[in-house]
């Protein structure tokens, strides 16, 4: 299960990326529907974290 934070309490991109990698390492096969949902949620969180990092750097 994902540990997605509440809105406004974003985790750093590195932390989300580590969770994505752990999910894929753990499954080592085609993702189930539940795992696919978790993966997609993590990708959205990662994209938001990267955007926040770019905005902060600018």
Describe the structure.
The protein is an all-alpha fold. The chain has two helices and no strands. The chain has helices spanning 13-27, 33-57. The longest helix has 25 residues, at 33-57. The mean pLDDT is 86.
What does this entry show, briefly?
With 58 residues, this protein is mainly alpha-helical. The protein has helices at 13-27, 33-57.
Question: Which helices and strands, and how do they pair?
Answer:
Elements: H1 13-27, H2 33-57
Helix pairs in contact: 1-2
Q: How far is it from the N-terminal to the C-terminal residue, by CA?
A: 33 Å
Number of strands: 0
What percentage of the residues does DSSP assign to strands (E)? Answer: under 5%
* Principal-axes shape call: elongated
Residue share in helices?
Answer: 55-70%
Q: Major β-sheet, in short?
A: none
Low-confidence stretches: none
Structural class: mainly alpha
* Helix run count: 2
Query: Please, what is the average pLDDT?
Result: 86
Query: What does the radius of gyration come to?
Result: 12 Å
Task: Output the helix-strand order.
Answer: HH
